[in-house]
Design goal:
The structure holds two protein chains of two kinds. Chain A folds into two domains: about 5-225, P-loop containing nucleotide triphosphate hydrolases (Rossmann fold), CATH 3.40.50.300; about 245-335, Nucleic acid-binding proteins (OB fold (Dihydrolipoamide Acetyltransferase, E2P)), CATH 2.40.50. Chain A has helices at about 45-50, 100-110, 115-125, 140-155, 170-190, 200-205, 225-230, 235-240; strands at about 5-15, 20-30, 35, 60-65, 65-70, 85, 160-165, 190-195, 210-215, 215-220, 245, 255, 260-275, 280-290, 290-300, 310-315, 315-320. Helices cover about 25% and strands about 30% of the residues of chain A. In chain A, strand 1 (about 5-15) and strand 2 (about 20-30) form a beta hairpin. Chain B is about 75% helix and about 0% strand. Chain B is built from 23 helices and no strands. Chain B is globular and about 70 Å long.
């Protein structure tokens, strides 16, 4: 019935008494890259490891290509799930050369050594690391290790790729090769990827859809633009980038403002309390009647700290009515970019 | 400048001590063979008794290595599973033989499975092979398995991270395939180390062949050295003993040197051992139960039943009577509790305590010096003593210092120091390696003098290692019988020597009672210190909340 590559239904995973995942429902369609975004400890890795078959859920189920692979009572072992994974620190085997590492999945499929190695070399060359085939992990740089780890995943010829927070960003070439592979694979059986990350900027650029995780729950799913422009709450907003929370003029409702949704020079008054030069642009924190506001403007700073300025708002997003979320420092942004919301007395 | 002078002087003294207890004995032995044996060397080397002993020793070492290494590795793999029923209990049970002196273990096996032993009395079955080469091989193996287990368990924790195996599983490898292609190759350096150590230690093992093999006419190099020295009136026998002792070193070095150069670079552990339990899916509960049953049967047959038989013999009136309550008696214990044995016990404990204290000091000094250039050669020399069999060291001591110290406790103490120096040095050096260098720097920058810095930030984290080193030396010295039995004189018998002599006189009840006593004497300080060390180790280190809880591994 479902054409989805991956489907999670009511997934719950606990460690002892701690709930790592609760009631998670998610689907990933063929050709899609789903990003999991959340602070560390939000359950991203647990989710991937449950999909891979390293953890057994206490409730709910995991379906891959419509086949149930995980439930509280039955579990298909990881090697029979037809998925590939890029591990957090790449998990390269110290005793195998890059070539044998990438040939490993083919060998396990029963292929001969010569043919498996020939295929492995092709994948390594595709990723521009063919010349490193004879090296062992200890002789590879971090970026090279990432490519070998990805090559091993590609050699698996899986329909589902899992990325467990790769410590370095995928560079554009590697990303291109991987996305091309997804498209190619989609033509025959269909393939998809789930990418766990804690860096908002990278994730928004890579994914077709983003699932925001906090405390083991999915708090929002949507396209990158949706989750950036229309976050369901303040926590979701902070996960996807810098944001200010303002009291809307003339009301008690709270609105979210991204730094580029506001601009200097306008009808509203404020005072500069912090200013940072950030190369291509400058960030100002303004003290206004509506609260503290982060404004981003291209070019070097035009005002000094303490200077009175005026500002305007080009766009804002009203927070759905709910109790205010206590602002939790998320790892996705330096604290200097997140002015804390100021409760303005009526 | 002053510090450097002090360091140089210390290095010089330590080097001198190492030379006195290791190099001098070896050199005088070589000289003895050269000067006194040159005429008869051909006769000695071609005598059939010597050939048999050398062949037996070599075959024993090969057989024990071939048996103990796979068994110990298998145990380490099984006990790594977080879902193994009774895991914590089995971990302790596997290590139990470490606390039982090897001659007690050998004697227990005779009492359990030999003629007129436990199974013979109760079931009417006995294993005649237990006294002889097969029995010796099996018991030396049982004695070596905990060592293999320890080395491979540490190797598993340090090198075979769960992520490595998970990566193999998602690449399509089944559980057995992962074991073959990933886990065992990653473990290879540890297994190789274990194999080399077991081989060398078996070459020098004395108590078990003496207790279980000699009565059946099975002789090894070490037992032949012992019996040659007993015939001290025969000068040729003495020269032969010295020749054998040197041969033992030659065989050990011939095995260790190539292994070390082959494995040396790979043996260094690059990462601290993690305690992250593997939660690999695909293990099912039935296999866990099978593993636990297997470990249980092994522990019971190899250690549990023999020790039980030993206790039963100790409390039973006479050999041949079934060990039932109506035959129970304390007379065996009463007969061995006398002034002579009390003195022997006192000597043993004192000797072991003094040796352990001196050894921790010397081991710590070498570990500290090792970090500078001057101490490295001393450290290498000290590590060499691991390869030196006790029989060789004892003979060397006897020739080098026997004239002045023969038959005294001092010469036994010297031998202990030579034999155990490396054992004291290893854990202390390892703990120093794990000490982040910046902690010492931080305390110096905070205003501490070198001495204060060591006292306040080095000694505390080092305490568990120092205590562990002390405990290992103390226990090993209490166990020690290979060198003591060659070096003791009237009035300097240790308790272990008393037990060995009693066994040779065939006093079954008394020997069993003594063996039970010496084991209890060992267990008390061992358990006490163990708890102290464990408490010391419980320094609040960065403990991750819980995302790797063992419960996760439960897979239907």
């Amino acid at each position: 019935m479902s054409a989805d590559i991956l489907e999670l239904r009511g997934l719950c995973v606990t460690y002892g008494d701690v709930a790592a995942l609760s009631e998670v429902d998610l689907t990933v369609a063929p050709g899609e890259v789903l990003a999991l975004l959340g602070p560390s400890g939000s359950g991203k890795s647990t989710l991937l490891h449950t999909v891979a078959g390293f953890h057994t859920p206490q409730a709910g189920e995991v379906l891959i290509n419509g086949r149930r692979v995980s439930s509280p009572t039955s579990s298909v072992p990881p090697e029979r799930r037809e998925l590939a994974m890029v591990f957090q620190n790449y998990a390269l085997w110290p005793h195998l050369s890059a070539l044998d590492t990438v040939a490993y999945p083919a060998r396990r499929r029963g292929q001969g050594r010569t043919q498996a190695r020939a295929e492995a070399l092709k994948i390594l060359e595709l990723l521009n690391v063919g010349h490193l085939a004879g090296r062992h992990p200890a002789e590879l740089s971090g970026g090279e290790q990432q490519r070998v780890g990805l090559a091993r995943a590609l050699a698996r010829q899986a329909s589902l790729y899992l990325f467990d927070e790769p410590t370095a960003h995928l560079d554009s070439h590697v990303r291109g090769v991987f996305l091309a592979e997804l498209v190619t694979r989609q033509r025959d059986t269909g393939a998809a990827a789930v990418y766990a990350a804690h860096d908002a900027e990278e994730t928004l650029g890579l994914a077709d859809r983003v699932a925001l995780l906090a405390h083991g729950r999915v708090i929002q799913v949507g396209t990158p633009q949706q989750v950036y422009r229309e976050p369901v709450d303040e926590l979701a907003a902070r996960l996807t980038g810098p944001v200010s929370v303002l009291r809307s003029p003339g009301g008690s409702a709270r609105v979210l403002v991204r730094p580029e949704w506001a601009a200097l020079d306008g009808e509203l008054a404020g005072r500069v309390i912090e200013v940072w030069f950030r190369g291509p642009h400058s960030d100002y924190v303004l003290d206004t009647d509506q609260g503290q506001l982060l404004v981003r403007e291209s070019g070097p700073p035009r005002h000094e700290r303490g200077a009175p300025v005026t500002w305007r708002l080009s766009h804002s997003w009203a927070l759905p009515e709910s109790e205010p979320v206590t602002a939790e420092p998320s790892t996705s942004q330096p604290p200097s970019q997140t002015p804390s919301s100021v409760a303005v007395p009526e | 400048m002053g510090a450097r002078g002090l360091r140089g002087a210390t290095a010089g003294l330590v080097a001198l001590a190492a030379a006195l207890v290791v190099l001098v004995p070896l050199l005088v032995m070589a000289r003895t063979v050269w000067v006194e044996g040159s005429a008869d060397l051909d006769d000695i080397l071609t005598s059939p008794g010597l050939g048999t002993a050398v062949k037996n020793t070599f075959l024993l070492a090969v057989a024990v290595t071939v048996l103990a290494v796979p068994l110990g590795t298998l145990l380490a793999l099984a006990l790594r599973r977080p879902d193994l029923p009774g895991r914590a209990f089995w971990r302790v049970a596997i290590l139990l033989p470490v606390l039982v002196p090897d001659f007690v273990l050998g004697y227990s096996w005779l009492r359990a499975y030999g003629r007129a032993g436990f199974t013979d009395d109760l079931l009417g079955v006995h294993w005649s092979g237990v006294q002889g080469p097969v029995g010796v091989t099996v018991v030396v193996m049982v004695n070596a398995v905990p060592l293999v287990y320890l080395i491979t368990a540490v190797g598993l924790a340090a090198r075979a991270e769960p992520a490595m195996e998970r990566a193999a599983r998602v690449s399509g490898a089944g559980a057995l395939s992962v074991l073959r292609t990933i886990t065992l190759p990653l473990l290879a350096p540890a297994t190789a180390t274990a194999a080399v150590l077991v081989f060398v230690l078996t070459l020098g093992t004395f108590a078990i062949p003496q207790v279980m093999g000699s009565p059946a006419g099975f002789s090894t190099i070490t037992t032949r050295i012992y019996s040659n020295l007993a015939r001290s009136s025969d000068p040729l026998a003495f020269t032969e003993a010295v020749t054998l002792a040197l041969l033992l070193v030659v065989i050990a070095v011939l095995v260790v040197a190539p292994a070390d150069s082959l494995l040396g670079p790979r043996l260094r552990v690059t990462r601290a051992a993690t305690t992250d339990p593997t939660s690999l899916a695909g293990n099912n509960r039935a296999s866990g139960r099978w593993a636990a049953t297997g470990i249980g049967c092994y522990s019971l047959l190899a250690v549990g039943l023999p020790l039980l038989a030993l206790v039963a013999t100790a409390v039973t009136q006479a050999v041949g009577l079934p060990p039932t309550p109506e035959n129970w008696t304390v007379s065996n214990f009463l007969s061995v509790i006398n002034a002579r044995n009390g003195e022997a016990l006192g000597r043993s404990v004192m000797l072991a305590a003094v040796a352990a204290s001196v050894l921790v000091l010397l081991g710590g000094l070498v570990a500290a010096l090792e970090r500078g250039r001057s101490g490295r050669s001393v450290a290498t020399l000290v590590s060499l003593t691991l390869v030196l069999p006790g029989s060789t060291l004892a003979l060397g001591m006897l020739i080098a210092y026997g004239r002045w110290l023969g038959g005294t406790l001092a010469i036994i103490l010297l031998a202990y120091i030579a034999k155990l120096w490396a054992i004291a040095h290893r854990p202390i050096s390892g703990a120093l390696d794990r000490l982040p260098p910046d902690e010492l720097h931080a305390s110096r920058v905070s205003g501490a003098s070198p001495f204060t810095a060591i006292r306040t930030v080095v000694l505390r984290p080092l305490a568990p290692a120092l205590l562990a080193a002390w405990l290992v030396c103390f226990l090993t010295a209490l166990h020690e019988v290979t060198m003591s039995s060659l070096l003791y004189g009237p009035g300097s018998e240790t308790l272990a020597v008393v037990v060995l002599n009693s066994a040779e006189l065939g006093q079954v009840g008394a020997t069993s009672a003594l063996a039970v006593l010496i084991t209890v004497v060992l267990l008390v300080p061992a358990l006490g210190f163990w708890s102290v060390i464990r408490r010391l180790n419980r320094i609040p280190v960065t403990s991750s909340p819980s995302p790797t809880a063992p419960e996760l591994a439960r897979v239907g």
